[in-house]
Amino acid sequence: MGWTASLDMGSEKMVMALASGEGSVCHLKGIKIMASQGIEHGVIKDKEKVRMCIRSLMSELMKDREIEVMNVALSGAVLRIVERRIVVPIQKKVVEQSDLFRAEQRCIDAYGGGQDEVVDILPVGYAIDRGEMIADPLGRSGRNLEVTYQVYLADYDYLADIQGLFEGSGIQEIEFYPAVRAYAEALDVERAERDFALVDLGAMGVNVVLFRDGMLEYEAHLPIGVRTIDTDTMAAFALSFGQARKLKHEYGQALRSICKNKKLPIPDTRLTLESRDLATVIQSRCEELLEGVIFQLQQWGFDVEDPVLLTGGGSRLQDVDELLRRMSGHPVESAAARRIQAPREEVLRTPEYLVALGLLLCARQEPKETPNGIGEKIVRRIGKIFGI
Q1: CA triplet 97, 69, 48: central angle to 5 degrees?
Q2: Which terminus of the chain has fewer Cβ atoms in its 10 Å neighbourhood, N or C?
């Protein structure tokens, strides 16, 4: 039995998951979460603290199991994203998988050498003979295939440092992915019946991603996250950071108009505050965060009838979905991982788990032999870093 593990290293939470694969089915065997240490704004600042967190999670989750691959998510703070258009001749006048592999390899080769390494590439559009953009070119006839890629680059030394955190663990391979790849896999974007946007309300930032026609179309990272609610609450009521966080987690509401007024105990004191006063502070900051999301969706021409899926720790705030619904006019739902079998359904709907669950489904694709017998072997995208 092959074991795959995943790791999502957030600024506040670190999540590790373990799964076994049998055929096309992914069976979740365990998932653990703990407070992050040594990470600031998505960047590793203290390697020893991060190493201790990883070892703690592995000791609880993996025990004596032999892990074939560990898929690790990289935050937007350590990734450089560029767009690249690649044109390749269609070898047999009809687009086949081998044409897509050649385009992908040409894109990877374009970024060989230097300090940056290719972490991942995602196609965001295809065209035949400079025609209109299409979502699926397979089977289309023409002379030239044009592919527009979103290319994710990361610093060679930073990736090597992360690999070093697993030294002595016995894990056979370490693979890196951007969070958007994990989103796409977790939500099974290729089989989606409708266009949708995903909004990940994180502690240090908000990710906004638009999927159309089963493909990534746009993504954006807004550098202000829900931790600002804690600092606003601290300032408004002269509290410590810990007190503000506890109030948000236990009593936080994002809509003052439907908040029933009552006295809330301030943690570690005999004092209280009004629940509507707390809701006013939270709603003010949430509106600011969501206005940035809505502006981005409007810029992308996202149809108001299509849904927005919420995830991330900030989506736990009571009524934040209703606030977004009222502000945007979009139907708003909670994101849930698909294509994974878990002992409990609620695990697949836990906002903090989405990236780790999606990573379990990520796999580097190796091209197969083409019908004419010419083997087009594409080196693993990250292989150049570690000599794999």
Answers
A1: 135
A2: N
DSSP count for the chain of H helices, then E strands: 11, 18
DSSP annotation of 114: S
Nearest 5°: the CA angle 79, 80, 82 is 140
pTM above 0.85, yes or no: yes
pLDDT category at 1 given cuts 50, 70, 90 is low
Distance CA(26)–CA(24), nearest Å, equals: 7
**Averaged confidence pLDDT in the chain:** 91
As a whole number of angstroms, the distance between CA 242 and CA 276 comes to 20
pLDDT at 178: 97
Across 80-109, average pLDDT = 95
Q: What φ, ψ does residue 169 adopt, rounded to 5°?
A: -85, -20
Amino acid letter, residue 170: G
Strand partners, 164: none
Q: What tokens does 382 get?
A: 């990250």
Query: Encoding tokens for residue 123?
Result: 């196609």
Q: Hunting for tokens 């767009």 — which residue is that?
A: 83
Beta bridge partners of 175: 71
Helix or strand (DSSP H, E) at 295? helix 275-299
258-275 mean pLDDT: 95
List strands edge to edge, sheet with 13-22.
173-178, 69-74, 2-9, 13-22, 25-35, 340-341
Closest CA to 54 of 162, 158, 160: 162
**Per-residue pLDDT reduced to its tens digit, 6-54:** 999 999 999 999 999 765 679 999 999 999 999 998 899 999 999 999 9
* Both tokens assigned to 319: 């009524």
Handedness of CA 53, 57, 59, 63 (dihedral sign): negative
Residues 182-216: tens digit of each pLDDT: 999 999 998 998 999 999 999 999 999 999 999 99
Q: In the block, which residue shows the tokens 């301030």? A: 266
Rg (CA), the chain: 22
The structure tokens listed for 218 are 């746009």
Helices (H), 44-167: 47-61, 97-109, 156-164
Residue 232 has pLDDT above 90, yes or no: yes
